[in-house]
Design goal:
The chain is α/β, with parallel strands linked by helices. It has a single domain, classed as Domain of unknown function DUF4159 (Rossmann fold). The protein contains 6 helices and 9 strands; from the N terminus they run βββαββαβαβββααα. It has a 5-stranded mixed beta sheet, with helices on both faces. A hairpin with a 4-residue loop joins strand 8 and strand 9. The chain starts with 9 loop residues before the first strand and ends with a helix.
């Protein structure tokens, strides 16, 4: 069975730990790329979501980033150059083709991660209904489940206790976890993370965060950073060597 190791080569960078160097050809090694999926539908509801997140990632962590957002179709030959894909939507869309589903399955089984962001802010959105069906088609043997608070993702960089975003539709994340690899390959937010990250060309926030305001926005940035660090480092914080440090920080909150 292909594993994450078949998809990435890890390098050590500073105190953060393992940073993947997926990149070949003209791609700069060891730089994180925010790569967004184009599909047949409203694939780009938050076109400015990546800018401030990447800036925060660059300032707050030792992750080196590429500031230009990448966009590509599921059938693009470059799909497998990236460890991370962002899939956003706010409404119903055309179903994926069988070939697209096969490629996404292969991407996920080879170690890639997809962050799905329902930006609708609605409890019963048509995007949510359809993306769940697509996940069942792509990975029928791996159910989408609520991620527990103890999941490594919530402590990969910041210690977090719930999921944030522009609007809190659900205070948790869902995900698909490959138990044989102990790795969550699909991360699903119902809370419009992209809306919380988005600013206009003048640096002003585009959307209000409901109901928690700017404190809620900060938590959305922290969650985004945690997701990126989780994608790049995997489950290293499950190692026993990290346990005392994590417990000490938890007690200080």
């Amino acid at each position: 069975m292909p594993t994450r190791r078949g998809f990435i080569k890890a390098t050590v960078k500073g105190g953060l730990g393992l940073i993947s160097s997926f990149f070949m050809g003209s791609y700069e090694p060891s730089r994180f790329n925010f790569c967004q999926i184009i599909y047949r539908g409203n694939w780009d509801p938050r076109p400015r979501a990546s800018r401030r997140l990447l800036s925060s990632l660059d300032i707050r962590t030792s992750v080196r980033v590429s500031f230009d957002r990448k966009t590509l179709n599921i059938t693009d030959p470059d799909l497998f150059l990236y460890p991370f894909l962002y899939l956003a939507g706010d409404r119903e869309f055309d179903p994926f083709t069988d070939e697209e589903r096969k490629r996404l399955r292969r991407f996920l089984r080879l170690g890639g991660t997809v962050l799905i962001d329902d930006t609708s802010g609605e409890e019963n959105s048509t995007f949510d209904t359809q993306i769940r069906e697509e996940i069942r088609e792509i990975l029928p043997e791996y159910p989408l489940k609520q991620l527990p608070r103890e999941h490594v993702l919530f402590k990969s960089f910041y210690l977090l206790h719930s999921a944030s975003g522009r609007k809190i539709v659900k205070p948790y994340l869902e995900g698909v976890t490959f138990e044989d690899e102990d790795r969550t390959s699909i991360i699903y937010s119902r809370n419009d993370l992209g809306g919380a990250w988005s600013e206009d060309e003048f640096g002003r926030w585009q959307y209000e965060c409901i109901p928690g305001g700017e404190a809620q926005r900060e938590l959305a940035f922290r969650l985004g950073i945690n997701i990126v660090v989780y994608v790049l480092t995997g489950n290293y914080k499950k190692d026993q060597i990290h346990t005392p440090f994590i417990r000490q920080r938890e007690m200080s909150l």
